[in-house]
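Appendix B. One record, verbatim.
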Amino acid sequence: MGTWATAPQFSGTDSVATYANQTLRLIVHTSTAGTRARIRISNVFGDRPLEIGSAHIARRARNADIDPSADRQLSFRGQSSTSVPAGSATVSDAVDLDVPALSDLAISFFLPNTTATTTLHTLAKQTSYVSTQTGDATAAATFPVGATITSWPFLTGVDVAASSRGAAIVAFGSSTTDGDGSTTDANRRWPDVLAERLQKEKGSGAQLGVLNLGIIGNRLLTDVHSPRQAGGPFGEVLQRLGPSLGDAGLARFDRDALEQAGVKYVILALGVNDILFPGAFIPASESVTAQDVIDGNRQLISRAHKKNIRVIVTTIPPFEDALFRRPSISFSTPEKERVRLAVNAWIRRSREFDGMADFDAAVRDPSHPARLLPAYDAGDHVHVNDAGNVAQANAISLALFTKGAPRS
């Protein structure tokens, strides 16, 4: 089952980082514990094979350094190196390693050849490390840091051996799930806080992993490849950043959610960008109705239920005066607010899914429900800060995570 995961993204048309004869040491934060572990590597957006010269997994000691007694070399079908074909992914062999819950792991890759990071997760909100050009440093207890990065190239998951009671919870969303607005290196995204709550809950916490499959800028209904998106006042910005914003939730749901190891629950938190983007980043002709967003959620719910996976849907928090700072643009309109309210009304009254978490009620300003409570506002009036992430995680009832079958 998964203890940590992230969604692969294309690096976009901005300058792509390239490494050669260097080691990446990527830091991730676990949700649940295990005594055996394996990693997942993605080259899904690559246009040539990804050559991994060697790879290690270890418990982090501090910064880029590891505990050498808890360092394990990884193999791939029994080999210490691997080649991941373009457009593909791979999983390492499992190794014996005591992986504590809520702990930091360091996953190190040696890249012997010139390697462009076309597949990565952009908004890691976590500092990772690149070696100086000194060859294979995957086993180095004290890492030779040449640079720091705040993305996760190629790495998309860490799995641990699970008991029969083990289950993974996938948080499937956009930047509000990905952690935009939270503090870097603090693990205060709402899925992190949910994982902490589960670990503190007597009896069941150690059996439930929480996997964050949010992507900044992601939409439920439409991906970034539509040629119509070249228009709009800020079409140039979206053309530059767009490829990294991910395939539509409808397109990536199977890969990023339903195919996670041990998944038994999905928390859906997509749709806000479908409502906000039209008329700003993209033409107003791509505006959506509440029914469009509802129908998109229904598709995901149906696909999850066919695999006996339970679905929790979250309401959409307020976004009055939502801003994009570079360039400065305001997203919100009264019509978009009406769409948000209609979607939330359906979520609150519908019985088509297996549970609901009212993020809207958790973080809105009671005196002005169309906007975020100032104490929770990260500053752009759409993303919440660390305190807001805690409020959202606390809005999820832990009683939802039982092993009963989903509603038919």
